[in-house]
Amino acid sequence: MSWINVKLLLLLASLSEIIFTCYAFTGRSLLQRIENTQATLAVEVGRIPGTAMPSEWAASGAKLGFTLEVGFTDNAEQITREMLAGDALMGNKPQTVIPLKQPSFISVSGSELIDVKPGAYGCQMQDRDSQQYALRFYLDFPNGARRNDVELPADRIYFLSRCWLTSSNDESMLALENARKEKKQILSTIELTDARLNKIRSSPPAGNLLGDIVQNVFNFRHIVKLVERKKKLQSQLKELERAYPLDSDKIINGPNDVSYAKEGVIAVKRSSKYLWVGRFKFTELS
Questions:
Q1: Measured between alpha carbons, how far is 43 from 67 in angstroms, rounded to an integer?
Q2: Considering the chain, what is the average pLDDT of its residues?
Q3: How many CB atoms lie within 10 A of CB 141?
Q4: Tens digits of residue pLDDT in 92-144
Q5: How far apart are CA 53 and CA 186, in angstroms?
Q6: Are 259 and 166 a contacting pair, CB within 8 Å?
């Protein structure tokens, strides 16, 4: 190997280390803002679209719901990091999350308590421009819970969500403002497209057989193009709203300029795969 190739490899290694350090730093910055935050979650265990749980699990469509209060601490114990080895979306410096109150639910036997043990939380940057992070935390449910055919497994339950740093720097604030403008433009174009579709669909007939045939063919082609355009715009809007905290109905603001996706999924982990066992919603942050 030539000296030039060796220098290139060393340079690439240095750049990789810089990038990794930068991502780790930004992840740590987010954790520092989440520390000491308390959250109230509405948890709903049950079958949801896309789950890979066995077909007989929660097949009735019933749900098991309970309120869960947790506290995100500034403790980072060595055992926590070891237990999370290989879980990249929780970052490389996870910290402890604790249950603040034992949750309960209503079964046919009445009110039943759910045993919950402390776990860990962490994050990993997903998009630098929008300052979006994957937020992951888990709690251990040693005894699980059951209501009819809906069972919360006696296992480690993962809570999968997203969050954003909403005022981290001028660059990210500018990106957010540009995203808001882009969303406004897309919505305006969708509205204009709908108006054109309605105009074509409500246009009066030509009044004669040949004219009606020609008009119908023209209208059909135009409608197809407009519908395709609308679908593309809706797809762009969906991606934009996924990347940035733009929809106030789907976002909840927490302390220290951190915004959270209101809803997330809960899952058990089998090998390297998450199997969804329900949903949760942030209802209060302080």
A1: 6
A2: 82
A3: 21
A4: 778 899 999 999 998 888 899 999 999 999 888 888 888 889 999 999 999 99
A5: 38
A6: yes
Distances (CA, A) of 56 to 80, 134, 144, 150, 195: 34, 31, 18, 10, 46
| Cα distance between residue 216 and residue 251, in whole Å | 44
Helix (H, G, I), strand (E, B) or coil at 86: coil
Amino acid at 278: G
Query: From CA 121, how far away is CA 154, in angstroms rounded?
Result: 19
- The vertex-260 CA angle with 254 and 263, nearest 5°, equals 125
| Of the candidates 12, 32, 36, 30, the residue with the CA atom closest to the CA atom of residue 125 | 30
State the pTM of this model.
0.77
**In angstroms, rounded to a whole number, what is the distance separating the alpha carbons of residues 260 and 250?**
9
Predicted confidence (pLDDT) per residue in 188-244, tens digit: 999 999 888 888 888 777 666 666 676 777 788 888 888 899 999 999 998 888 888
Confidence at residue 251, expressed as pLDDT on a 0 to 100 scale: 92
Contact 258, 267 (CB under 8 A): no
* Cross-strand pairs, 284: 40
Pairing of strands 117-127, 263-270: unpaired
Contact 193, 230 (CB under 8 A): yes
d(CA 115, CA 81): 23
Among the residue ranges 80-89, 98-107, 262-271, the one predicted with the least confidence is 80-89
Tokens linked to 48: 């949801």
Mutual orientation of helices 209-243 and 170-201 as an angle, nearest 10°?
160
